[in-house]
Structure formats: structure tokens, C-alpha cells
Amino acid sequence: MARQIITVFGGSGFVGRHLVKRLLKRGYTVRVAVRDVESALFLKPMGDAGQVVPFPCNVRNRADVEMALDGAVGAVNLVGILSEWGKQNFKNIHLEAARTVAEVAAEKGIHRFVHMSALGADPDSEANYARTKAEAEDAVRKALPDAVIMRPSVMFGPEDNFFNMFARVSKISPFLPVIGGEMTAHGVGGGTKFQPVYVGDVAEAIAIALDTPDAAGRIFELGGPSVYSFAELMDLLLEVTQRKRALLPIMFPLAMIKATFLGMLPKPLLTRDQVRMLRHDNVVSGEHPGLEALGIEAQTVEAIVPTYLAPMRGGNPMKRYA
């Protein structure tokens, strides 16, 4: 009996590699729709022969999307960017691509559909990232009312863009930034609040939602078990990497100035749009179900982050530093 096909757009990325593994365990053939097929070849050994199918697809090309969804029983859209560069802008990648994928899925009668959004998605946001994420949600649900929307907080895991980036910064810089932080009687504290969620838990949530009819048409806010301030996360990172670095509070106006220049890099450490996002806490609202509604017990930052930051440790153990 032939395996059913699930198409995962952007399946070679951070979330995709974890999701593909879980879908394979559920017995699906996974069609990994990516612009660069070679970037997805590392996924093939995860499954049996022919169970992982890297598939060339430009999500902005409707014909490509139609071929990628041909014969599929379900689909997941993970395509997204953190910063804009040339034609890779938020409107094209977040909104128009999501609209195309959802509309084609609807035309093909595919109703098992999960769309990756983000906590903070807001049609009235001053941040282009958050605004286009919200607009994409609306476009997807208009095309596919049964679509499941996932809104994760900052995700952590072996290939993450958060802890890994700041760990690399800590290797060469005498301080770590705390955007929006302030001086307190005990050192530097505060800053934007986050509810980091393990990427494996997010992938598991998507896989379960695809197989759970009751999840259809719902929005899930995915956060971990704890909320941390920016300063607390930098403190935790320093403890894990066994480095002693000063925490430097950076007010939002100064962060905007720094982001103006950093944003000019091909892979910027910080953009003006991200600073706008950081003005608002990134925690679940409680208005929508979360991981627990899908039967998932969230992994903690303390349990997972040390497992992949160990190679970045400094030479000397240290006490908790703030």
C-alpha cells in the first residue's frame, strides 16, 4: 500500500528538519518543497528509500506550488524569513507565498493544512514582520478555513538563531546586549520578555495537528513552560557557556541606531524591524490553546540548551552572572 504524501514547504529549515523526522515516523512520504533541492538532501537518510522526496519549488511560482501539492493529502507551510534582502521581502515571502500555497491546496481539495505564523502577529503592528505574519494568517484562512495556525514564541534547538548567535557573540565580545534592559540594584535586568519553546515540541505540535481533526481551523500559541526577561536569557547563556561577560543595557532609541547599520549586512545581527518587535513581550496571550492541548509536555530551556552549546564553553567554570 502506497504511503500518503505530506508536502512540507520550507522543509529543509530549522523547524522542517525536525518535522520531517516526525512525519516519517508516522508513516508518511514527505515531499520537501524547497528552492534549492541540494539543501534538502541531508534529510533523505532519515527515512526509507524514497520516503523523503526533495522537490524543487519556488513558492512565488504558482505552477511550482501546484506540482508540489499534486497527490498530497496534507501540507505544511514553514516558509518565512527573519530579515529582508532584495526580492526576499516580507510581503512576497510571508503574505503572497502563503496565499498561493493555501489557494492551491484549496483547489486540490487539501484541507489538512498547517501554517507557521508567529507570536506577535498583528495586522496593526509597526513591524513589517509581525504585520505580514498576521496578513498571511488572514489570507490562509480565507482560502482554507480549516487551516491550523501555529504561533510559536522564540524557538530554541541545535540550529537556532537565538542562543547560537549570542553564544558566538560572547566568544569575541566583552559584553552581551540587553535591549530594553535597565540597571538595577543587582546589576542589569529586564528587557523584552520571551517564552522560548523547543523546536522539537513545535514540530511535534504540527505533526499531531495534521492528524487531529479537532485541531482544524484553530490557532495555537506555542510557548515553553517559563517566561524569561532578555537579561535572564543572557544570564542563562553565560552560565551554560561558562563565560563571564558584562550585560549592557541598550535603550530602544540606541538599538534603532545600531540596527540601521547592522541591517545593511546580508545576514544582519539586528534590524530596525526586529527592534520594533522587541518593544513588545513575546509570550502567549492565553486566548488560544497551546502545546498542552495537543498532549505535549513542553521541554525546558535548562534541559535542552546545554546539550548543544557545550562546544562553545569557555575554559573556566563560572558562577551565575548578571
Describe this structure in words.
The protein has 322 residues and is α/β, with parallel strands linked by helices. The chain folds into two domains: 5-146, 3-Layer(aba) Sandwich (Rossmann fold), CATH 3.40.50; 163-194 and 226-283 and 299-312, Alpha-Beta Complex (UDP-galactose 4-epimerase, domain 1), CATH 3.90.25. The chain contains ten helices and 15 strands. It has a seven-stranded parallel β-sheet, sandwiched between helices. A two-stranded parallel ribbon has the order 7-12. A two-stranded parallel sheet has the order 8-15. α1 (14-25) links the parallel β1 and β2 (29-34). α2 crosses α3 (90-107). The longest helix is centred in the N-terminal third of the chain and has 18 residues, at 90-107. The chain starts with a strand and ends in a 13-residue tail after the last helix.
The CATH superfamily name of the largest domain is NAD(P)-binding Rossmann-like Domain
CATH architectural grouping of the largest domain: 3-Layer(aba) Sandwich
Into which percentage range does the β-strand content fall? 15-25%
Query: What are the secondary-structure elements, in order, as H or E?
Result: EHEEHEHEHEEHEEEEEHEEHEHHH
CATH class of the largest domain, named Alpha Beta
Rounded to an integer, what's the Rg over CA atoms? Answer: 20 Å
**DSSP strand count:** 15
Global shape: globular
Q: Which class do the helix and strand fractions yield?
A: alpha/beta
What number is the mean pLDDT?
93
Which regions have little confidence, pLDDT < 50, spanning 5+ residues? 316-322
Largest sheet: 7 strands, parallel
Measure the end-to-end span.
58 Å
Number of domains: 2
Helix content: 25-40%
CATH fold-level label of the largest domain: Rossmann fold
Largest sheet strand order? 3-2-1-4-5-6-13
